[in-house]
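To the wet lab folks,

You asked to see what we're planning to order before we commit. Fair enough. Below is the target structure as tokens, and below that is the sequence we designed to fit it. If anything looks off to you, flag it before the synthesis order goes out.
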């Protein structure tokens, strides 16, 4: 059985929010943001543009790239921490917007590690059941709706966007798609990065709104330190399991885009060159579950990743959830 990446797509909303714009909103400056994070601008979805619109746009492009009709898709998994609603799922809204027929659709919650988690889940679904010939794996976020725009320590970091991969079961014995992975969780770190309000712990109330509990709360330095170690160890585990040498065999590494300094520290410890790393954080900021999917699509569309090449995906995020995946395009 072989599951190939039949097509990729991404969608970035039109409106750009620059560091200069943020200087007018909070006590910050372009130099601090660029040197501490690597971000120059991020894109913000229009008010009437919701997560499923961006997810559907990315899916449309992935389907077009593969020449596959939406009616042929067997399942859609949308990784997101900014769903359209708590229920119905964002994936069900994608189903409606793409006028799908038979697709089994659900959302997946693993914050910034959502896309890797969805790729793991989507591939496993296809391995378990041949009726899923085509599966769309999506990361989509409208993080601008959960950012506290008065908190300079977080509001400069995040942006909106979506990315998608269409998986196809080609069943020809070829060595393609997801080849090896190392996915992990440590719930003991669940307090360092969270959205405290709106769930069963702090149901929405006037008080939760006044206390800004419906926005991202983050301990930045702790997250930073854990992120580097976690991504490097997952990449090394995949390297050993797959019997490859990252610095020699991998065409591109697509890391989660949270901070340029995290990306550089990971690259240094993996012994890879700048050319091997997909980095777009300067333009998009951190788009959580969408970031690796967007980076992967860019690698394909810019020709950095060609058919047959190996890519290494790496991510970490709230949970703590982290992982690495070896994929052949
Ligand atoms: N503009 C200007 N100054 C800012 C600022 C901003 N936007 N945000 C914070 N500061 C200030 C702080 O108040 C602090 O000032 P002080 O020394 O007077 O107290 C100073 O800058 C240093 O803050 P610190 O938090 O130590 O900065 P940092 O170098 O750790 O960078 C992050 C902060 C958030 C950029 C960094 O910790 C980070 O990227 N962490 C990982 C976050 C992450 O990956 N999140 C997503 C996970 S999926």
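Sequence we intend to order:
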């Amino acid at each position: 059985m072989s599951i190939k990446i039949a097509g990729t797509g991404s969608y970035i909303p039109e409106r750009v929010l620059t560091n200069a714009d943020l200087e007018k909103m909070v006590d910050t400056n372009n130099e601090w943001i660029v040197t501490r994070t690597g971000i120059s601008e991020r894109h913000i979805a229009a008010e009437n543009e919701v997560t499923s619109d961006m997810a559907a746009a990315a899916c449309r492009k992935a389907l077009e790239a593969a020449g596959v009709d939406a009616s042929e898709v067997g399942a859609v998994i949308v990784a997101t921490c900014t769903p359209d609603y708590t229920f119905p799922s964002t994936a069900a809204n994608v189903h409606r917007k793409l006028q799908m027929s038979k697709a089994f659709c659900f959302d997946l919650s693993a914050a910034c590690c959502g896309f890797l988690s969805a790729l793991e889940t989507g591939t496993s679904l296809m391995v378990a059941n041949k009726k899923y010939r085509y599966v769309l794996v999506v990361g989509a976020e409208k993080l601008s709706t959960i950012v506290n725009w008065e908190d300079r320590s977080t509001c400069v970091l995040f942006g909106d966007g979506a990315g998608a991969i269409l998986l196809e079961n080609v069943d020809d014995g070829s060595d393609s798609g997801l080849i090896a992975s190392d996915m992990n969780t440590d719930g003991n770190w669940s307090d360092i990065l969270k959205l405290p309000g709106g769930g069963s712990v702090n149901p929405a109330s006037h008080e939760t709104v006044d206390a800004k509990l419906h926005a991202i709360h983050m301990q930045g330095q702790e997250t930073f330190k854990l992120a580097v170690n976690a991504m490097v160890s997952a990449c090394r585990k995949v390297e050993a399991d797959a019997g490859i040498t990252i610095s020699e065999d991998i065409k591109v590494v697509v890391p989660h885009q949270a901070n340029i300094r995290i990306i550089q520290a990971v690259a240094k410890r993996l012994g890879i060159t700048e050319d091997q790393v997909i980095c777009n954080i300067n333009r998009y900021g951190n788009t959580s579950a969408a970031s690796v999917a967007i980076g992967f699509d860019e690698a394909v569309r810019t020709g950095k990743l060609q058919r047959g090449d190996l890519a290494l995906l790496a991510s970490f995020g709230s949970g703590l959830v982290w992982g690495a995946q070896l994929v052949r395009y």
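Structural context that might help your review: The chain has a mean pLDDT of 97. The CA atoms of residues 51 and 87 lie 13 Å apart.

Thanks,
Computational group
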